[in-house]
Amino acid sequence: MPLKGIPKVLTPDILHALSSMGHGDEIVLADAHFPASSVCKSSKCGTIELRADPCNSLPYLLESILKFFPLDEYVQEPIFLMDRVDSDKAANLNVKVWKEYDKILELSQGKPVKAKFVERFEFYEQAKKAYAIIQTGDEAQYGNIILKKGLVIN
Predict the structure, then answer these.
(1) Predicted confidence (pLDDT) per residue in 99-142, tens digit
(2) 33 is known as an active-site residue
(3) Most buried residue among 63, 80, 137, 154 by CB atoms closer than 10 A?
(4) Contact 104/66 with Cβ under 8 angstroms?
């Protein structure tokens, strides 16, 4: 049953994962191409696979999560993006979703947020250490993003 003020994209399983995470834990928001199942199965720390296949907008999922999720302010880069492979860099592939992420992050944090670009296979290795991976139906190229959880200080 929906709750007031909670975006429907944030399922009970996603909300549970977000609230169960501790300071410094990471969560992956993955596009439809990301190998979430195999990454979770090869994780040595029990990374949880969460399915959000009906969600076809990673920017909307990010915006929804950031309403409740603090980013880690004790690190320089609380955001990690999967970098383009060399052939896409050579072709100067424009990743439109990154610009959307920048706007959402700046609006939610009140300042620009620096992201670290991570090589594809290193990104997979980092994802194996995440608390959870949320697999979406978004088909955006290079839409994968990792968030590092911070503190809620009242």
Answers:
(1) 999 999 999 999 999 999 999 999 999 999 999 999 999 999 99
(2) no
(3) 80
(4) yes
At 93 the three-state DSSP class reads coil
Of 31, 72, 101, 142, which one is the catalytic site residue?
72
DSSP 10: S
User: What per-residue confidence (pLDDT) applies to 1?
Assistant: 62
* 25: phi then psi, degrees, rounded to nearest 5: -65, 155
Query: Does the active-site annotation cover 23?
Result: yes
CA distance to 73, 111, 123, 140, per residue, from 18 (Å): 17, 23, 20, 23
Q: What number is the average pLDDT over the span 48-58? A: 96
Q: Which of 25, 83, 86, 124 is flagged as catalytic? A: 124
Inter-CA distances, 34 with 15, 30, 42, 135, Å: 21, 6, 14, 7
